[in-house]
Amino acid sequence: MSLIAFALPFLFSQSAMNDDTLYSESLRPQFHFTARHWTKRIIEPGQRQEGWINDLNGLIYYEGEWHLFAQRWAKCWLHAVSKDLIHWEELQPAFWEESEGSGVQSGTCVIDYENTSGLGKDKKHPPMVAFWSRFDNHSQCISFSLDKGRTWERYKGNPIFDKPERDPKVFWHKPTKRWVMVMYGDGAYHILTSQNLLKWEPTGNTIPNSFECPDFFEMPADGDPRRTKWVLIQGNGNYSVGSFDGVKFVEDGERHPCDVGPSFYATQSWHNTDTGDGRRIQVAWMRSDKFPGMPFNQQISFPCELSLKSTKQGLRIFREPIKELKKLEGKAVRIPAQTLEAGKSLTLTTAGDLYRIRMEVDIPLGTTLTLNLRGNEVKLTTRTLENGHQPSPVQDKVNHVDILLDRASIECYLNHGELSSTRTCFPRAEGLSMSVEGGSVKVKSLVIIPLKSIWR
Asked: Could you read off the pLDDT of 230-273 as tens digits, one per residue?
């Protein structure tokens, strides 16, 4: 072991003990995951510096822990663990690039329960295997861990193959008893298969017009395990529903956005959750401008549970905040049902920065309900939502609204997840209020819930 490798844990722990401001900085999101600095405090860190976070990769659930891996722009894989998807402990980076500029780009983690790779020592400790691509976009590599991701070893046979692609998504396909890899390259996704995770064979099948960082999984339609569909989500958040036989994916129809907000990118979901409660939980990189004056940069969206539901226009993905959010909820303030007339405003609160707002509304045609959330506006009409982007429609009409407000974000969910919008934005004023233009709005119910910080 090199002297540097030996000294890193000591340096990291000393830095942690000496930094009393960590996680309490003025713009630090309080219930969204952000990266920490370890050895030095850098203001407005850049893409490969401590405190930066971008693409999600390798999300895996294993033995009661949710593992979150993410990019420090191919410098290393950041790593955090949680027991509840709410409170996170950021561990030392999982593994680093082999040499300056070689890169460890986005990829996948799997649990090789049957030790098909031969990387494990016994069945009690199956290897956690991470797939990633070097910066050359040709060399496909493996790192593996035998202690739940706490320490990692590079596979001595790297690269396992050379192919001009990147962002490998790997999973076990039970019906064909093979590992499947979906990789991005040359504007398409390419499908490969393997018996042992080490030797891969191209199927010759591609998914054209694709875009980076694929996420691919099977889901029950309307909660019926006898009626499942495969969902393919691209790095830009667009998804398609279809069928998959282990070698070929056939899309049923058009692609649709998972989220219509301006800050939703490189989305991934946790795999291996069938060993837990089976939920499909999704997060995304909230790509944005820098956090001014802060020793961190970028953030991760709040975890959402995905469901596949039948609508008038076919099967659609619905996104709602995970139920664990209730752990952060304080005492709710219920505002009486009322009709809000045009030209009138209603003050919700004059201070505070962490809130959940839930309401049932009836907005007639030609009327706009505007929420002013610390100087940032969210506009609702009969059918549309505008949250830092062009108005986006629901299929019928807006009735249920759920909003999460953190120090640097507004996330909106309409009609129990039919439409969601993820947006990074900084406060411009104090207080929360709402007003109406063009008519009157029936506010059938309205609850303001203060939220607690996840940082203990």
From this structure: 999 999 999 999 999 999 999 999 999 999 999 999 999 999 99
**Strands 280-286, 56-62: pairing kind:** unpaired
Q: Which long-range contacts (CB under 8 A, 24 or more apart) does 215-218 make?
A: 215/169, 215/267, 215/268, 215/269, 215/282, 216/169, 216/171, 216/182, 216/244, 216/249, 217/171, 217/269, 217/271, 217/280, 218/244
Could you give the C-alpha distances from 270 to 65, 150, 152, 276, 284, in angstroms and in order? 11, 18, 20, 11, 11
pTM: 0.94
Q: Provide the pLDDT confidence category of residue 123 given band limits of 50, 70 and 90.
A: confident
pLDDT at residue 18 in the model: 54
pLDDT value of position 9: 36
When pLDDT is averaged across residues 357-373 and rounded to a whole number, the result is 98
Q: What is the mean pLDDT of residues 433-445?
A: 97
Average pLDDT over every residue of 314-343: 97
CB 81 within 8 A of CB 56: no
Q: What is the pLDDT of residues 204-223, one digit of tens each?
A: 999 999 999 999 999 999 99
Distance CA 212, CA 57 (A): 12
- Give the mean model confidence (pLDDT) for residues 410-416: 98
Percent of the chain with pLDDT over 70: 96
Token representation of residue 405: 């407000």
Q: Over 60: is that where the pLDDT of 348 sits?
A: yes
Cα–Cα distances (Å) from 237 to 159, 329, 425, in that order, read: 29, 29, 20
